[in-house]
Specification:
By secondary structure, this protein is α+β, with helices and mostly antiparallel strands. The protein is built from 17 helices and 22 strands.
Length: about 525
């Protein structure tokens, strides 16, 4: 097993990986930018190293800096998390050159399946159905227009290196193609450093369903059921659940076997996800593969009783999977909400700032993968996700009931959150009946909400006292510049003392910064 693992990421996923490392008895090292020096993952890590200024292109996206930290801190493995460099084949290649194990697929497999166009080509070669569209990046707008006319509008532009809805645009009419092309290419360039696009036919009311797969270096590839990811806002997943309300054992088996076959064809190992669109007749079409851990992996973990991060680490260490496909048993139901610092009343604009009070829910069937704490300043430089709230139960109704209760307990002051959005979704009859599709949420938000309780209107006295304490703390903090700020050491050769300083501050009664 590995001696020490570098986590090349931030936020809740860095904390999630860090905890898995701790359970396995493996020291975890994290990296951070200037904007993240007080982040939770820095405070919890065994060691933390500064890698640059706030812009990700000067910190989290700089492979040389990350490899340098891994090398100098004595790490023999690196976990990329999701986002940033997680699907960039240059990172596993750099790891190999440095003699560091990459906790993920090989660079070659990432290129074969992580590239949207290459994966679609391989899917067609292996008999997995795909949505009509281009198999190669389109370099010029004129060529895109010609292909779109051939396929027929509406079409969807997608980033070749993309994910998470970035670099994606729905184009309903020919007149919209030019501006959508420029916007998508610009967004893809900023997000992934690769502005190339391809296009697909837009399907009416499809569901977005994905299959989690695992493969080891000993020839074993299995699937762990599906996740329903149809509740999306502007192509960004908002709620995920497992299993899908429309799934049948036969459809799960067929989709699972298609995903496994495609993974085998691409020589894929470690954890990955095959994404599909499913139409009303339950025909499925391969969309793309995510060659990494997914944000929504907890719902699979809860229904399949596995720890995907630990399995990733074991696979990267050369261990075989200790269970076979026939051993996989899915039990119960799990639903996840992505909690964001954003303002639903202002077109979901990010809501950075200092969290003056934070209380996360707990109780039977409740899991919170959190990356925030009271006193932390949500930075403006990154995706404003605070964490993930996951509820599980014996069936979908119980999971929904628990999630509704947990949302009522979630409390954050000082920033806006999208908690109210989830309350609305979970009260909608269509959602409760499982009648959802990829544009359902966008259509729901276009309708006026009715009878939604104002968040915080009936909060308990304890919460109000917490508000007051937080405000006093914030005022005190704002007027006491003399308090020594003790950030993590910026030298890549010296471990951070920030975690220790945080503990000392807590013991001394000093508000967290």
């Amino acid at each position: 097993m590995f001696k020490k693992i570098l986590i090349a990421n931030r936020g809740e996923i860095a904390v999630r990986i860090l905890r898995a490392c701790r359970e396995m008895g493996i020291p975890a090292v994290v990296v951070y930018s200037d904007a993240d020096r007080a982040s939770l993952h820095v405070r919890l890590a065994d060691e933390a190293y500064r890698i640059g200024t706030a812009p990700s292109r000067e910190s989290y996206l700089v492979i040389d800096k990350i490899i340098g930290v891994a090398h100098s801190s004595g790490c023999d493995a690196l976990h990329p998390g999701y986002g940033f460099l997680a699907e960039n084949p240059r990172l596993p290649r750099a790891c190999a050159d440095a003699g560091i194990a990459f906790i993920g697929p090989t660079a070659a497999a990432m290129e074969r399946l992580g590239s949207k166009t290459a994966a679609r080509q391989l899917a067609r070669e292996t008999g997995v159905p795909t949505v009509p569209g281009t198999l190669h990046p389109i370099e010029q707008l004129d060529a895109a227009l010609e292909k779109a006319r051939e396929i027929g509008f509406p079409i969807v532009l997608k980033a070749v290196a993309g994910g998470g809805g970035k670099g994606m645009r729905l184009v309903e009419r020919e007149q919209e193609l030019g501006s959508a092309w420029r916007d998508a290419a610009s967004e893809a360039t900023n997000a992934f450093g690769d502005g190339r696009l391809y296009l697909e036919k837009f399907l009416f009311h499809p569901r977005h369903i994905e299959i989690q797969i695992l493969g080891d270096d000993h020839g074993h590839v299995i699937y762990l059921g599906e996740r329903e990811c149809s509740v999306q806002r502007r192509y960004q997943k908002v709620i995920e659940e497992a299993p899908s309300p429309i799934m049948t054992p036969d459809l799960r088996r067929v989709m699972g076997e298609a995903a496994v076959g495609l993974a085998r064809a691409g020589g894929y190992t470690n954890a990955g996800t095959m994404e599909f669109l499913v139409d009303a007749q339950r025909n499925f079409y391969f969309l793309e593969m995510n060659t990494r851990l997914q944000v929504e992996h907890p719902v699979t973990e809860l229904v399949a009783s596995v720890d995907l991060v630990k399995l990733q680490i074991e696979i990267a260490a050369g261990k075989p999977l200790l269970f076979k496909q026939e051993d996989v048993q899915l039990r119960g139901h799990a639903i996840e909400c992505r909690i964001y610092a954003e303002d639903p009343g202002n077109n979901f604009f990010p809501s950075p700032g200092k969290i003056l009070g934070l209380r996360v829910p707990s109780g039977p069937g409740i899991r919170m993968d959190n990356g925030a704490y009271s006193g932390w300043v949500v930075p403006t430089d990154y995706d404003p996700m605070l964490g993930k709230l996951i509820a599980s139960g014996k069936d979908r109704a119980e999971a929904i009931a628990r999630l509704q209760g947990a949302l009522g307990e979630y409390y954050a002051r000082g920033i806006k959150t999208n908690i109210g959005l989830f309350r609305r979704i979970l009260s909608e009859p269509e959602f409760l009946r499982g009648e959802i599709y990829t544009k359902w949420l966008d259509e729901l938000l276009a309708r006026p909400a009715a009878g939604q309780p104002e968040f915080g209107k009936h909060r308990a006295g304890a919460a109000l006292a917490e508000d007051a304490a937080a405000l006093v703390a914030a005022f005190w903090y704002a007027n006491h510049d003399a308090i020594p700020n003790k950030p993590a050491n910026g030298s890549p050769e010296t471990p951070s003392r920030w975690k220790i300083q945080g503990r000392q501050d807590q013991l001394a009664g000093i508000p967290e910064r």
